[in-house]
Amino acid sequence: MSVSRRELLRLAGITAGLSAGGCLLAACGSPPGGPAGASPGPVRGGGTAPARRGGTLRLAFAGGGASETLDPLAAYSPADLVRSMVVFDRLFTVTDGAAAPALAVGAEPAADARSFVLTRGKG
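Above: the chain sequence. Below: its structure as tokens.
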């Protein structure tokens, strides 16, 4: 039986994917010495004060360095996509497969049929 180089590379890729998936599933197991499905408990030193509004949330992403962009149409890395979602609001969102208003509450085709006239929401 002969195996082509393409088939060998395909099998190697499948094997690597399955082993990586197994490692990820193993990481989702129960904590050492605890029953299955048990959480490790509360965060030590987390405090007992009631939650309050405000504050600063800092996130860290492995970015692209010089290739990072603020252009939402050129955002390909996870850091760029998250940054775009935080910085820019959408005109419309998609809910259950249908367009729902966000910043714009309506869109009508212009007379020249080459553009749209958007109706902005209040605020």
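Strands lie at 92-95, 98-101, 104-109, 116-120.
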